[in-house]
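User: Let's play a game. I give you a shape written as tokens, and you guess the letters that built it. Ready? Here's round one.
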């Protein structure tokens, strides 16, 4: 089995196949077993159909993977958070498969196995362009209805996509479940005023790992074993995130019934303030507040994670 490290990942990224079905009976991509094993994702030896590879969005290659049950009753699309990658969402993938849904995940531009400068984005529209490409793929290959699930920045992307498509009569998602969706981070008011002064002098900020989950095994994994974890955060991403927050605050909102799940132990977001804005802009929002849950809700400790997953509406 190939060893996954920074050198092999660079080679893998250069030789990724186009998105398609991977058969366990045929010789498959050499690195795939190591990848699935590292992240403890469903493997090729069960009844699920497995797909992976790249598709094009905004002239960039986006890496995606999908697991399809024999007779799916719909399709769930997972959007991960900033600095994450799809490999970290095995718990959520397995939960959605237990609901007999096809599960589609993809790495955001600049993260995981997708193209782009590491952790860089200059506008959230690049994220929604990737989501649109995934949606087109799903509408061609996978069973409706479609459910969007977003962790943190993934939730913000789903909200931006919703606002961008609000006037349209053919909105593709049947449900949206947002786990600690990003609007304003902790200390955002100070950051909003400091950002214009810091931006000309700093290209990036050093990554700091917080306690985003009660699951110590997960925290150890992302700090020590996850080869895709960025070590720095480019300044343009913070500018893009601030632009998104202003865009949402200035919008007329949406009447779509968004399901927001937020933890009271979240120290990444100014979540109390965010919920006030969400309630104003999303009048039909459903809210589930999970006591003591930290920010990375898809990877919380088992007892808390079960409450989070039970709060989802699919």
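Assistant: Ready! My guess for every position:
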């Amino acid at each position: 089995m190939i060893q996954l490290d920074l050198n092999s990942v660079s080679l893998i990224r250069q030789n990724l196949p186009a998105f398609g079905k991977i058969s366990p009976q045929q010789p498959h991509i050499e690195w795939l077993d190591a990848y699935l094993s590292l992240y403890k994702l469903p493997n090729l030896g069960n009844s699920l159909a497995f797909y992976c590879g790249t598709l094009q969005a905004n002239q960039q290659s986006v890496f995606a993977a999908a697991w399809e049950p024999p007779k799916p009753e719909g399709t769930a699309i997972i959007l991960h958070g900033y600095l994450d990658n799809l490999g970290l969402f095995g718990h959520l993938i397995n939960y959605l498969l237990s609901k007999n849904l096809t599960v589609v995940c993809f790495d955001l531009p600049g993260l995981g196995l997708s193209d782009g400068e590491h952790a860089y984005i200059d506008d959230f529209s690049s994220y929604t362009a990737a989501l649109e490409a995934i949606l087109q793929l799903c509408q061609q290959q996978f069973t409706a209805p479609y459910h969007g699930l977003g962790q943190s920045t993934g939730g913000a992307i789903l909200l931006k996509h919703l606002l961008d498509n609000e006037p349209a009569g053919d909105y593709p998602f049947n449900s949206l479940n947002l786990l600690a969706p990003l609007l304003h981070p902790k200390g955002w008011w100070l950051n909003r005023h400091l950002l214009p002064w810091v931006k000309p002098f700093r290209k990036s900020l050093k990554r700091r790992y917080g306690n985003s989950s009660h699951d110590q095994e997960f925290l150890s994994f992302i700090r020590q074993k996850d080869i895709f974890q960025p070590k720095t955060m480019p300044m343009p991403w913070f500018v893009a995130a601030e632009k998104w927050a202003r865009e949402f605050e200035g919008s007329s909102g949406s009447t779509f019934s968004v399901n927001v799940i937020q933890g009271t132990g979240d120290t990444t977001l100014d979540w109390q303030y965010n919920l006030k804005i969400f309630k104003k802009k999303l009048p039909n929002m459903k809210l589930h507040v999970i006591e003591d849950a930290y920010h990375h809700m898809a990877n919380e400790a088992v007892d808390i994670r079960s409450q989070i997953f039970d709060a989802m509406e699919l």
